[in-house]
Amino acid sequence: MRFNIDGKLLQQQLSAVNKVINSKNALTILDNFLFELNGNELTITGSDQENTVRAKLEVLDCDGTGQIAVNAKTLLEITKEISNQPVNFSLNEQTGEIELQFLNGQFKFMGINADEYPKGDSLEEEAVGFSVPASVILKGIENTVYAVSQENIRPIMTGIYWDIHENDIVFVASDTHKLVRYITREVAPGFERGFIMPSKPANILKGIIGKEDMVNIRIGEKGASFSFGDFSLTCRFIKGNYPNYNRVIPTDNPFVVNVDRQSMLNAMRRVAIFASKASNLVKMEMQQGMIRLAAQDLDYGTSAEERVMCDYQGNDMTIGFNSAFTVEILNNMGGDTTIIKLSDPARPGIFEPLEQEPNTELTTIQMPMQVIE
Question: What is the mean pLDDT of the chain?
């Protein structure tokens, strides 16, 4: 098995596939890339057993077919140093020795029998499929992935819920302290299905997908595949039923604040420096035309307050929020003006951009914290 390939292209594809490989694997074979040559097409595969990424490349001057597993760390280090040169890859199928030749030298190292590499799960024939512009998926993941839970106590909360309807897709994520619901009507899948995508493949997809790609999605009972450009990603779902997210979003929060998002974000960051490290509590005192942010850390005897101008005509109210979560929400929301809808200090607050993007609807809620005067 032998072929020539552009070193820079090889390095780029290897870096993309490497995103799925764990730093520590239960199976040592998963420390490797799987190389498969068929005609003039080279397929590079990486896997962590739960998720699989494949990249296809066109090679030149190829001879023979075959497959070999190659240590990912070694190959990435090599290609990083010779990425601006053409590379000749040759495999001695009798000994398993790999030789990489470049302009001024060569490397020799051993490959591993590819038969040991896991084949991965294949989707059932009954899997349903549809095509989606990459931009729709990117916006869905970017608007929600930051809100997934980092704790494994409730595994279903550690992923993004895709709630697919005939005329829209709803992306939902929550860590029980905050919840994000992003509705896109830019596509009409034509069927109803729901699944929970773990955050790891969601982040991989976000990292390797191109904005101009069309993504072909196939959804089975236990997993899904995403094919686009030269790549494909297959992932397993998180088992379980996602909670009814619509039930926790308040429908009657009559007190509405319009505030410049960047001003609010910067002020919250500054005041949060002096919040209690245990709670990150920042009080938001709503007054006519102004929000007063206040925080204190009794353990160190420090405090801070700052006023942010806003458009607010409701009753004076004081509500407490975890400043770290509020900063995350404002930082990921986008837009110039944020709407904050409130009811009372014991009920969740709703954060929305004043101007929603066409055919989309972004809603974020944050649970309040108890404020002790």
Answer: 94
- Cα–chain center distance at 371: 33
> What pLDDT is recorded for position 373?
62
Q: Is 329 in a helix, a strand, or coil?
A: helix
Nearest to 30 by CA among 118, 121, 120: 118
Residue 371 predicted with pLDDT over 90: no
Amino acid at 1: M
Per-residue pLDDT, averaged over 254-276, amounts to: 96
Give the CA distances from residue 355 to residues 121, 133, 261, in Å, rounded to whole numbers and listed in that order. Answer: 42, 22, 12
Contact between 172 and 180 under an 8 Å Cβ cutoff? The reply is yes
Cα separation, 195 vs 202, in Å, equals 13
CA distance 327 to 50: 32
pLDDT in tens, 86-114: 999 999 989 999 999 988 889 999 999 99
Average pLDDT score over residue span 261-285: 96
Distance CA 171, CA 182 (A): 5
- The torsion region of residue 234 among left (phi > 0), alpha (psi -120 to 50) and beta comes to beta
pTM tops 0.85: yes
Residues whose CB falls within 8 Å of the CB of residue 217, separated by 6 or more in sequence, listed in order: 129, 130, 131, 132, 224, 225, 226
Q: How far is CA 62 from CA 7, 40, 84, 300, in A?
A: 15, 6, 20, 69
**Structure-block tokens of residue 37:** 């040559």
Query: In the predicted model, what is the mean pLDDT of residues 140-147?
Result: 97
Q: Tell me the mean pLDDT in the region 156-169.
A: 97
DSSP 44: E
Return d(Cα 101, Cα 56) in angstroms, integer. Answer: 21
> Quick one: which of 264, 244, 257, 236 has its CA closest to 323?
264
DSSP 94-126: TTTEEEEEETTEEEEEE-B-GGGS-------TT
Local structure of 314: helix, strand or coil: coil
In which residue are the tokens 């296809």 written? 56
